[in-house]
Write a structure and sequence with these properties.
The protein is of the alpha/beta class. The chain has 13 helices and 16 strands.
C-alpha cells in the first residue's frame, strides 16, 4: 500500500515538477517561438517568393505564349497575305501571259502583213517587167446585140457593150479579142445569124474598151463573101496602131508574120480557122489563114526566128462541147512540137479550161481550150458564161528565154435585158444575183441563172483536166 502510495506520490510529484519545469521554462519557450516565427517568416517569405516567382514565370510564360500566338497569327496572316499575293501574282501572271500571247499574235499578224506587203510589192515589181497579156472569147454580134444601139443616129454607139470590163482590159499591155464576124461599113449590109455582117462601130467600141489585137480567122469571116473581108481589112487600115490577124488582101501580106513588141519582148501571133461556113473553092488560099500540121510547124519555126514568144490563136473545136475536139488535139501537138509558147482556142461558144503541156525536152506551152462567148444574144445559159485568158510573159535578161507566169482564166458573163434593150458583158466577180434576176434568158429559154450557177460552171472549167 505504502509502495503504491509512494508511486502515486512520485507521479504527482513528477507532474507537479513537470508543471514547475514548465513554469520554469517559459523564457526558453518564448525564445524558441521567436526563432520559430522567424523561421516560419523565412519559410513564408520563401514560399511567397516562390509563389511570386511562379506567378512571374507564369506571367512570362503566358506572355511568351501570347507572343508566340501573336507571332503565329502574324505568320499565319503573313502566309495568308503571301498566299493572296501569290494568287494575285498568278492572276497578274496569267494576264501578262495573255498579253504576251496577244502581243505575239499581233506581231505575227503584223509580220505576215509586212511579208505579204513585201511579197505583193516584189510581185508587182516583177509584173512591171512582164508583158500582161489577155485574150477574150467570141465577140458574136447577133441581131439583138447590134440593135441595142440607137439606130436612128448616123453613127451607132456600142460602148455600153464593154463598159463594165473596159477598166480591166485597159490595164493589160496587150489585149486580144476573137472578132467572130466581119465588119461592114454600110449599114444596109448589117445582119445577124446566119450570115453575119457587123457594123464597124462595134470595132470602135472594142478599141475604146482597150483592145488592140483582133483575130479574124473564124468560120463566119466569109459570111459576106469578099465584101466582108475587104470591108474588115479597110476598117483595120484606119487603125494602123492596131494589129489584125487571120485575113489578108495579098499573098505578100499573108507571108508577113505579125509581131507586137512590148517592154522589149517581141510576141509573134498566128491565127487559123479550121473551116468556113461558106466554103468557096475560088477563094484564094491566102485570104483566110487555115491550119495544117505542116503549116503550123513551118509558121512557128519562122515566127521563132523573129520573136521571143509565139502565140497561136486557133478557131476550132465542137460547138457547145466543153471538151477539146480531136482536131484541136492534133493541132495542139503540132504547135507544141514546133515550139509555140501559147495556144488559145475559140469557136465552141462555151467555156473550157486551160492547162500547160510539156514537150519531151521540157519545153512548155500554155493552152486555153475554149474561151466561150465574149458577148452574144444566144439563148442557152451555158453560152452566157465566157472567159478571158490572162497571163504574164517574162523575158530572162541573161538567157533571153521567155516564161509564162500567173496564168489564169477570168470568167465573164453576157448580160442582156430585153425590156431596157441593154446588152453588156461583166466580169463574173462583178456580177450580182440582182442582175441575174433581171436576165432575159429566163424569158427566152425559161432557164433561171444566178451567181451559184455561173460560179459552179466557172469552177468546173478552171478545174478541168484534159
Amino acid at each position: 500500500m505504502s509502495e503504491y502510495r509512494n508511486n502515486r506520490s512520485h507521479k504527482k510529484h513528477t507532474s507537479r515538477g513537470g508543471i514547475q519545469r514548465k513554469g520554469h521554462g517559459n523564457k526558453k519557450r518564448v525564445k524558441m517561438t521567436v526563432q520559430r516565427r522567424k523561421r516560419i517568416i523565412r519559410i513564408r517569405l520563401t514560399i511567397a517568393f516562390l509563389i511570386l516567382a511562379v506567378i512571374v514565370c507564369a506571367l512570362i510564360f503566358i506572355k511568351a505564349q501570347s507572343d508566340k500566338r501573336k507571332e503565329g497569327e502574324r505568320i499565319t496572316a503573313s502566309n495568308i497575305g503571301h498566299a493572296k499575293v501569290m494568287v494575285d501574282f498568278k492572276a497578274v501572271d496569267k494576264k501578262y501571259n495573255a498579253f504576251l500571247k496577244e502581243a505575239e499574235e499581233q506581231q505575227k499578224i503584223e509580220a505576215k502583213a509586212a511579208s505579204d506587203a513585201q511579197k505583193e510589192k516584189e510581185e508587182n515589181e516583177f509584173k512591171e517587167e512582164c508583158v500582161h497579156f489577155i485574150a477574150a472569147g467570141d465577140n458574136l454580134i447577133h441581131e439583138k446585140v447590134y440593135q441595142s444601139a440607137d439606130m436612128s443616129q448616123p453613127v451607132w454607139n456600142y460602148d455600153a457593150l464593154y463598159e463594165n470590163v473596159s477598166d480591166y482590159v485597159a490595164k493589160a499591155d496587150i489585149a486580144a479579142v476573137n472578132q467572130e464576124t466581119p465588119f461592114v461599113a454600110d449599114h444596109s449590109e448589117v445582119s445577124g445569124y446566119p450570115d453575119f455582117g457587123t457594123p464597124t462601130e462595134i470595132g470602135d467600141a472594142l478599141i475604146e474598151a482597150g483592145f488592140d489585137v483582133f483575130q479574124f480567122a473564124t468560120n463566119h469571116m466569109y459570111d459576106k463573101g469578099m465584101y466582108g473581108i475587104e470591108s474588115t481589112i479597110n476598117y483595120c487600115k484606119l487603125h494602123p496602131d492596131k494589129t489584125y490577124l487571120g485575113i489578108h488582101e495579098s499573098e505578100e501580106d499573108a507571108s508577113n508574120i505579125k509581131v507586137v513588141e512590148s517592154k522589149g519582148i517581141k510576141i509573134a501571133m498566128l491565127n487559123y480557122s479550121t473551116f468556113l461556113n461558106k466554103e468557096d473553092e475560088n477563094l484564094p488560099s491566102y485570104v483566110i489563114d487555115r491550119p495544117s500540121e505542116e503549116r503550123i510547124m513551118n509558121d512557128v519555126a519562122n515566127a521563132k526566128n523573129i520573136s521571143d514568144f509565139v502565140i497561136i490563136f486557133l478557131h476550132d473545136g465542137t460547138e457547145y462541147d466543153p471538151q477539146p475536139s480531136d482536131s484541136q488535139r492534133i493541132y495542139e501537138n503540132a504547135a507544141l512540137e514546133a515550139g509555140a509558147d501559147a495556144l488559145i482556142c475559140s469557136h465552141s461558144h462555151v467555156l473550157e479550161g486551160f492547162n500547160t503541156v510539156t514537150r519531151s525536152d521540157g519545153h512548155e506551152m500554155l493552152v486555153y481550150y475554149g474561151l466561150g462567148n465574149f458577148i452574144s444574144s444566144q439563148d442557152s445559159a451555158q453560152c452566157l458564161l465566157g472567159g478571158m485568158a490572162d497571163f504574164y510573159i517574162h523575158k530572162d535578161e541573161v538567157s533571153g528565154e521567155c516564161e509564162v507566169y500567173y496564168e489564169d482564166l477570168v470568167p465573164t458573163v453576157t448580160h442582156y435585158d430585153f425590156d431596157s434593150n441593154y446588152f453588156t458583158v461583166y466580169l463574173l466577180e462583178d456580177y450580182t444575183d440582182e442582175l441575174a434576176a433581171n436576165h432575159s434568158i429566163t424569158d427566152v429559154s425559161g432557164e433561171v441563172v444566178d451567181l451559184e450557177y455561173f460560179n459552179y460552171y466557172a469552177d468546173i472549167a478552171k478545174q478541168a483536166v484534159y
